[in-house]
Every structure is written in C-alpha cells, then in structure tokens.
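Researcher: Here's the sequence for the chain we discussed earlier.
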Amino acid sequence: MTVYHVLGQTVSTTRWICCLSLLLIYVAVVKSTGYLSDMYNLANDEYEYTDLYTNAAYKSTVNNLMEEAAKYFDYIADPDVPEDTSKSESWDDAGGIVPWVDEETKLRDDITVKYSYSDAPNIVFALVDDWGWNDIGYQSTYLSFTTPHIDALAAEGIKLSNYYSAFLCTPARASLLTGRYPLRNSMYREELKGELPLDEYTIAEEMQSAGYRTYMVGKWHIGYSSVSRTPTYRGFDYFYGYYNGFIDYYNKTYGGYLDLTENTDLVTDATELDSTYHSAILFQTKAEKILESHSESYASQPFFLYYSLQLMHQVWAADQIYIDRCKYEGSDSDLDTYCGMSLMLDEVIGNLTCALDRYGFSDNTILIVASDNGGTSVIKGSNYPHLGAKGSTHRGGVSVPAFIHSKLIPQSRRGGTYDDLVHVTDWLPSLMHVATNGEWTGSFGGSSVAIDGINVWDAIMDDEASPRTSIIHLMDTTSNYSLLVDSYVLNYNCIKINEHDVPTCTYDTDQNPSNSFLSCDIVSLVDFSDTDAISDDFFGTIAAVNSNYRAVFVIAVIICFIGPLLFFGFVKFKELHAIKRQKSG
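Model: Thanks. This is the structure I predict for it:
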C-alpha cells in the first residue's frame, strides 16, 4: 500500500511539475511573439500602478490637486431626468423609437448670425465610437494594415499624441457639443438617464451664429425624450441617425425597436432599412449626399458636419467581404470581425475625403478625426500600452487617437505631432476661433455659461505650449472625482466602474508612451507598396503563434498525460523487478 501511495504522489507531483513546465513554455511562446505580448500586456505603463497618495514626499502635490478639484464642487449639477412612463407605449404606437414626452416644442429664438468671415473654412468632425489607442493603424500593434487611408491623412496633418476625451460615450458627446465638463450638467453617468439640459448651447448653435449650415449623421446619445431635445432643435439644420448608444448594424434596431431617424421622422425607406445594408455604408452614403446637396444649394455658405460614426461600437459586425480579408488559418472570429470593422472604418473615412474633393471642398475644409473614449476590451478595442479601458478614468479609458487634416495647416506643421495637452472640451472654443477668424466672444449664454474648453488652435498650429494644464476626468460628487494636472492624476474614491478599473484610491503619475471600395483615387496619399508586406507580416506572425500553440498542445498531451503513465510504468517495472530478485535470492 505504501508503494502505491508513493507512486500516486509521484504521478500527481509529476503532473504538476510538467504542467508548470508547460505554463512556462506557453509564457515563453507568448513573450517571444511581439503581437501577443503587445496585445495582452495592458499594464505595461508602470507609472499607472505607482500609488503616491500616502507618500509624504508628494503631500503638497496631492493637496494642490485636491484644491484644484474643490474649485468645481459648487458646479456639480443634478441630472435632468425625464419621465419615461409612456415611453414603450409611444414606441409601440410609432413603430420605432421616438420622443415620448409631450411638451411645447420650439426652436431657440436667440440664434442669430453674429459673425461674418468670408474665408470661413468648412469643418468636419468625425467622431469614432470606442476606438482604442492601439486601434489606429499608425500606432497599432495588431491592426496596422487596416487603416492606410486614415494613416495617410494623419501623416499629412497633425497627430495629437496627448489628447484626452471622456471615459464613456455620453459624457464625451456632451463635452464635445457644449465645451463644458459634464459635471455641470450631470452627463457623466449614463445609468442616471439624464439628458443634456435645454438651457445648454451646442457647438452647432454656435456655428449657426457664424453663418454656418450644420449637419449631423450618426449617433446622438445625449437625450431625446422630447422633440426639443433632438438634433434639429439643438442647432443642426439636418440630422440622419439614431438616438441611443448603439443600434444593430444591419437591422437598425435598439432593444427590438427601430432607431433610425431623419430630422424628426422615423426612416421608412425600404432600401435604407434592408437588413443586409450595413449602417456604416448607409451613413457614409448620407454624408456624401449632404456634401453633394450643399455644393448645389449652399455653395457660398460654410458648413459644419458632425459625423458621429457607429464604428467601432458593439454589437460588433462587418460585411463578410471585409472579414474575409482578415482571416487566416486558425484565426479568432472576434478579431476577424473587429479587423473587418477597422477596414470599413478606413474606407468610410477615405470615401468622405473623396467626396470633399469631388464637390470642391478639399482646399478649404478642416477634418478632425477622434475617438470618444477608449476601446472596450483587449481584442475588440485595445488601449495598449495603457492601463484601463472604456468606463475607466485610467489612461486607457480617456487617452484616445485624434488628428487634424487640412490643406489650411501651415506647411511647416504638416506631418507633425502635437505633444501637449488637449481635451475634448477644447474643440468648441478652438473651432469657433477658426470659424470667426478670432472674433468669437463666447457662448450665447454669456458669462453665466462657463466654457471649460480652452482655445488651443494656435498652439497646435504653431507647436507652442498648450494653455491647458489640467483636466477633470470625472466629478459626480464631492467624494468621487478624477483629475489630471500636469503629469499627475488623482483618482479620489475611485468607485469601481467596471472590471477594467482599480477600485482603490490611487495617485498616479501618468506618462506618454510615446484593397478598398473607394469612390476616388487617393493612392497618391498612401504608399500601398508596404500594405501587403504589413499584412503578410501580420498574418505570418499570427500563423507562427498558432503553430507554436499547436506544438505546445502536443507537448502538453505528452508531458501531462502520457509522460506520467510512462513514468508510473517504469517505477512499477522496477518494483516488480526488485521483488523478483528478492524471490530468486
């Protein structure tokens, strides 16, 4: 019995030792492959883990940060939450998602043209949804081959390497449209179901004051309980898109209800509602038609186009032709889909550029491409090398891709990078500065409406120090806030937002890391001779990884299962041989 007990322990121990060896082999394979180590090593930024909150040497700095935060405590607003008792009944009656609160509907009567600038540029703001730091080709470790046209535009423009947005969709949009921190209108928490208050002015209304015609395509997501809260009553002359945080890319539904509106009416066109028609292509087509119509009917008037893309948000989907371009032997289906979506994103941005050129706008248009917040996960939205993701105030949730492209950028700055601080709230004052040739004097609301955004346009164009030195990432109560000042981030209280975040009070030092269906020929912008090489290298790397995985699996079977049995048999043989010798002796 003792022999068999020892043998049992030997087998068990051997299995553990062998499996531990297998784990070490697995780690070695992953670490030796740049693709996977870059994909999964999200904690690479060691400074994100440095907790200095209780470090006496930083007491003064911490106190200064807390004093900076306290300046905003008096401005924390309660959410503007509408009644929703009749919401589903209204949707059932209408056959889709519509405003449900019955209240007086009227346009603002104070939106008048106050500024006139004969050379006012057209402005296109393309807001990509849930686009992680590691998702844009020119700085991606895994999707580098998917965005050649976006990369080309960025390479001829100015990349913003230190750009911050909000950590979620709604606060990002509220910040962009108002130039104000969401603490002032309680738009930080989507679960509170607050809406952008009616006394808030938007960048579209400000643009109208400068004589601009304003358009919006895509995602709204800041409230639609009443008609007065919808885009065409908040400064946009035309709207085509959806009200909620996302819709099915093919069915155009949210929660089982159609969510696709043109101006204030549900879309009924059978072609547009075709369940095989991907919404990214639909919205691209609408954006191009807007440009065509504007060139025909409003050629003498500048335009502002807010192109609020659905890509790259869940529920992830791409046309099969794009997914097939991403497949390889043993590939991951989720990554294939996300990769296909990235190809589609590059195509729609490329075609937008084509349309600007086709209708004569390219010489006098400013194109801004930016993400609303960090990517959502590891494969479907990577924020490497930053800690955190969408929903987190760590860098991975708020530091996102952004760049400016325009022929109006000074020649000396084209192809450059701006490394100083820029925040999503800065776009309103910066773009109004450009739209009015520096004449803009502030919001319609006057001094009672504080603009948290800072005009950083000249600093970016001249590559000078940013006038911005701090950012409020989150502040929904006086005991729960996150802010950045210079290179330091204070996360005070830090309630757990999702599984990516760290639910502790931390004080972090945050450092910088440093074949399409196009409607025009913009090959001159991109050296496609490298595209296939990048793609082959990518696929070759992944194929090598999978080959290594298969080899490791075979070793696992041999070592962890067959090996111990062979060892057991050998020991048993030795035991029987010893007994036989004893008997023979």
